[in-house]
Amino acid sequence: MAQGRFPDRSTWLIAYTLAVTLLCVFVFTGNGLIDTVAFLALLVPLFIASDFDKTDPRVGRLVLAFVLLCALPVIGMRNTFYLDVAIQVGIFAVLALGLNIVVGFAGLLDLGFIAFFAVGAYLWAILSSPHGAALLGSGFPLQGDAFFVIAIVAVFVAAGAGALLGLPVLRLKGDYLAIVTLGFGEVIRVLANNLDKPVNITNGPQGVAGIAQPLTEAARALATATTAPAFKWQALIYYAVVLALVLVAVLANRRLDSSSIGRSWVAIREDEIAAQAMGVPLVRTKLIAFATGAAFAGTMGVLFAAKQTFVSPESFDFNQSIGILAMIVLGGLGSIRGVMMGAGLVTILNLQVLKSLSAGLNHLRATGFEIFGWSFANLPTQFEPSKYERLIFGLILIAMMLYRPRGLVPAERRPISARDARRAS
User: Fold this and answer.
1) What's the gap between Cα 94 and its chain centre?
2) What ranges make up the beta strands (E) of 174-325?
3) CA–centroid distance for 312 within its chain
4) Average pLDDT in the 254-259 region?
5) How far is CA 288 from the centre of its chain?
6) Which residue, 340, 244, 344, 332, is CA-closest to 42?
7) Where do runs of H (alpha helix) occur along 315-417?
8) Tens digits of per-residue pLDDT, 77-101?
9) Using 50, 70 and 90 to split pLDDT, how confident is the model at 147?
10) How many CB atoms lie within 10 A of CB 186?
11) If residue 374 lies in a helix (H) or strand (E), which one and from where to where?
């Protein structure tokens, strides 16, 4: 890349970021379709700045830090819905990065990935809720300050569950592996739905409520010292935690991708028999892939339970696993940047774009807006975009498979020297 191109692109990127930030802060501060477009425009620099091949890395890091650490928190404190969307994007980005290790790097098709997310969520839910006190007795529920300890514990618990799944399916691959992992995901969901008798462990379909949140005292102290209410500071705390976890997940993915175990995963993905002939230990390599991906999901399950303060089996159904798989297919299998982009696009599409379109349509229906003599008041409620979430999702995936089968940001494996490989391993 010629050095002369950097200033032009960098200048444009900085100017665009500042302009959109000012618009979001001083003009578009409420709800509505236009505000949604402005919010999405603010996220565009994240995608451009993260492409260090086409953008000066120093400018890229500066723009990333400005948007993530300054612009989004300021806008989110004015309207916590945007902060909530950013948190959800972060949670699903880490989940997608975890599944990317299993499917994108190692080529092991896992359709039950959401089960490990459920393991982490129920772990924190049971330990930190009044239901846990009734189940476990004195010493429970744990206070919110134990969140970070349990998040670390969840890494090992979920990794153990991933290894347990990997052990019986080591000889399977392709469609057979997909069916087995699908069954594992359903087993976890059915257990969560029925383990309320004879011993009430999961509280069945009613779910577990009253889950403790971390750093609530800090949020109250900040609210006392400022004019912002405690729930906004609590949302900002979750945003900071998610941001830290996303950073850890990205660094871990990059490290693993360039390590010897990452090379072994790719070798298994491309040709399992040839990899085994070259000395790659199939059992250990596959187990590490399952366990590593599950560890990511378990940690985010703890965070999800704390943020929602309620979990139920409905949050961990088969559609969630497919949704996470679609994120990495949409972004690009094996591509860290692409997976994060896919997670962001799918999450924002579900949480904000479709809901904003539905809200706008309902407004036109309520006001009786007419176009060419036809009133929107006659439009049936069945035409709300939010009800066609899966349909739109399916059409996007079909288009992707037809025109960009490798995803929006295809994975590119760069050659590395033996010295770099030893250093990364």
Assistant:
1) 5
2) 208-209, 310-311
3) 19
4) 89
5) 21
6) 344
7) 318-331, 336-348, 354-367, 389-403
8) 888 888 898 999 999 999 999 999 9
9) very high
10) 16
11) strand 374-375
